[in-house]
Amino acid sequence: MQRRFRSAAKYYLSGRPSYSSLLIRRVVELCALNSTHKMLDLGSGPGQLAMAFAPLVQEVTALDPEPEMLEIGRKNASSDHFKIKFVQGSSYDLGPQFGRFQAATIGRAFHWMERAPTLHLLDAIIEPDGAVVLFNDSHPEVPENSWHGPYEKVIEHYSEDDIERQRLRSPDWLKNEAILLASPFHQMERISIIERRLTAVERFMDRALSLSITSRERLGAKADDLASEIRELMAKFALEGVVTEVVESTALIARRNSPL
Asked: Per the structure, how many domains does the chain have?
């Protein structure tokens, strides 16, 4: 299988919107996480979520199949002395050898997994009062996000023949909520934080190249055309090289039973 994220890894942290720090704190509060707890960040990429939670818990295990992602995560984490173990592996590797966790986070990666079997494996290693937390981000339809529609059209143009994108848009594709409802983690609570951010034009180019569907690995020479097209587009919405975007960071907290 093509290593979709090998070339995307170096653009991930600079391109992808960070999750709101306020959202992280709210998840910590709602899941009653503290410095005695261990967490799993599944499909961790370069450790965006792992690094956000590490100062708030005892230890985070960041599990990802892509070595390039893990290497970037190790370099960033070591500079800040975070308590993170970066481990190469995927959801198929989950088992008792990892120990037990109070929570498992999954950010923008659940759709790459065999979701129902993954939840079954997580059920065996997450504490009885623990949770699975799915993170995502989106751009609300507000005037400051007027750039988002044209941006998505460019991404669509360069990825319209991608099989994975077509699979996720199929009418047969079940939403994550449906999968969770049929799992042990069927009690759900969704929270979100909406923030205005100022983002340099170059970061939107990085964002496009951080996507598996428009990575350099997949597009080859066309990746430079994509970057040029994104730069030209976003310059129209920029003021002194900076674009205003409104980002909604979301966490879907799934538990076995409703909290008391």
From this structure: 1
